[in-house]
């Protein structure tokens, strides 16, 4: 008799005994709930307004902050968190895009958002579903498209009218299911803080109220999980996509003043501004745009600052201008409106700026209790998720070691 069967028999007996002793729920791997609070700044956790997020950090892990990828916008960064790929690699290079074959991509276009051809790489739910593990989405950019022919088992069309409480209730319903259908991975998304911060500024009473509302919603999720005896059996991962910077009224540049519209067309406005020179007008467009200006700087796509790891994807326009913190690029017709409106907020600035820092906190059986870890990069979340879900990660740009100090059993 070889050594292997002699060792295997007692081990098998132990495993069977272990299963018989614990209820099926205990034996099942812990579900992962990935939450995004759009526009939550790293420093928002220190305002004393978020007791529930503070408790998650105290009972789990908090990274000093999480650096977003370039550009620090919603769709590129949500999709980076779930693929571990830089926007330049996964192809969702901006919230507004133009593609030679696919045409225009806008957040408001249901058709574009649900067209898998815009979404490259393999998001975590696709890998999980391919491994036979159930997944569910209470919104997340990308979950409405059949990427590689696969959607989360449960998903819905993005609808802001579904309240934050309803979203949490749906997630709680899924988590209460039997292990055979309970999602191994669930996403949960909230836009409320981002909206209030854009409209009134990140330090406004309106943004503070949105922050407190969302913290209370997270508190409801925690209370319900605790009441079900599930709190210590779920791995909660709470992230944001980017931070937010105040924008004083009138800090706006007209895109038409950046370059003559007869020489280049602006594909995007806002903070990361892309221009496509008109046919035969490249030299004229470059002469007006390239280099440093009063409130922005422009580069050819191949010459962008290397730390942004951006500019090789065909969807990145030929010239990219980066607005300085606190400045917006708008159409000329909107300049007067910008000056007349109250102070607001924007993101889309250099990801290295402290104001753009996002959040990573986590709690659950996989995580240490009360650990503080150094800043991470948002490409590092995907290999962690793959590990928690129990699948082999697809190719990614992250560092799997970055989050091992957060794990109870690295
Ligand atoms: P932004 O601030 O422009 O980077 O984008 C934030 C906005 O994205 C939020 O106000 C949401 O309304 C919107 N958003 C988030 N998820 C989706 C989605 N799945 N489909 C369409 N819009 C979305
Ligand atoms: Zn966002
Ligand atoms: Zn936003």
From TrEMBL:
InterPro entries reported in the protein's UniProt record: Alkaline_phosphatase_core_sf, Phosphodiest/P_Trfase
One example GO MF annotation: phosphodiesterase I activity
Signal peptide feature range: 1-27
EC number annotated for this UniProt entry: 3.1.4.1, 3.6.1.9
Domain of life: Bacteria
Protein keywords: Hydrolase, Signal
Keyword Hydrolase part of the UniProt annotation: yes
Family matches, as Gene3D superfamilies: 3.30.1360.180, Alkaline Phosphatase, subunit A
SUPFAM superfamilies xrefs: Alkaline phosphatase-like
One Pfam family named in its UniProt record: Phosphodiest
Protein name: Alkaline phosphodiesterase I / Nucleotide pyrophosphatase
Organism: uncultured Lysobacter sp
Organism ancestry: Bacteria, Pseudomonadati, Pseudomonadota, Gammaproteobacteria, Lysobacterales
């Amino acid at each position: 008799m070889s050594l292997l069967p002699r060792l295997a028999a007692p081990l098998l007996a132990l495993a069977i005994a272990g299963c018989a002793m614990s209820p099926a729920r205990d034996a099942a791997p812990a579900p992962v709930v990935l939450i995004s609070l759009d526009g939550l700044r790293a420093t928002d956790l220190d305002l004393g307004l978020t007791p529930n997020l503070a408790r998650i950090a105290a009972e789990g892990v908090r990274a000093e902050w999480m650096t977003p990828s370039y550009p620090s916008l919603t769709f590129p960064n949500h999709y980076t968190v779930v693929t571990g790929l830089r926007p330049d690699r996964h192809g969702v290079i901006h919230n507004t895009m133009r593609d030679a074959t696919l045409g225009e991509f806008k957040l408001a276009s249901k058709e574009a958002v649900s067209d898998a051809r815009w979404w490259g790489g393999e998001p975590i739910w696709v890998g999980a579903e391919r491994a036979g593990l159930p997944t569910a989405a209470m919104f997340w950019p990308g979950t409405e498209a059949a990427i590689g022919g696969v959607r989360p088992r449960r998903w819905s069309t993005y609808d802001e009218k579904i309240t934050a409480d309803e979203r949490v209730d749906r997630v709680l319903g899924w988590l209460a299911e039997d292990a055979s259908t309970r999602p191994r991975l669930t996403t949960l998304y909230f836009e409320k803080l981002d909206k209030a911060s854009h409209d009134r500024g990140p330090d406004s009473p309106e943004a503070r109220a949105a922050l407190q509302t969302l913290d209370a919603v997270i508190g409801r999720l925690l209370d319900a999980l605790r009441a079900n005896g599930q709190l210590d059996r779920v791995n909660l991962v709470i992230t944001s996509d980017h931070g937010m910077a105040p924008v004083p009224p009138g800090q706006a540049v007209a895109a038409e003043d950046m370059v003559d519209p007869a020489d280049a067309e602006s594909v995007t406005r806002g903070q990361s501004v892309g221009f496509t020179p008109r046919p035969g007008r490249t030299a004229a467009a470059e002469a007006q745009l390239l280099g440093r200006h009063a409130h922005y700087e422009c580069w050819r796509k191949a010459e962008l600052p290397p730390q942004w790891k951006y500019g090789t994807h065909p969807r990145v326009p030929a010239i990219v201008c980066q607005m300085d913190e606190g400045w917006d690029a708008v159409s000329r017709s909107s300049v007067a409106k910008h000056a007349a409106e109250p102070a607001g907020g924007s993101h889309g600035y250099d990801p290295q700026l402290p104001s753009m820092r996002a959040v990573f906190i986590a709690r659950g059986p996989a995580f240490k209790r009360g650990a503080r870890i150094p800043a991470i990069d948002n490409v590092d979340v995907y290999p962690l998720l793959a590990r928690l879900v129990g699948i082999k990660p697809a190719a990614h740009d992250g560092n799997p070691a970055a989050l091992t100090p957060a794990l109870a059993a690295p």
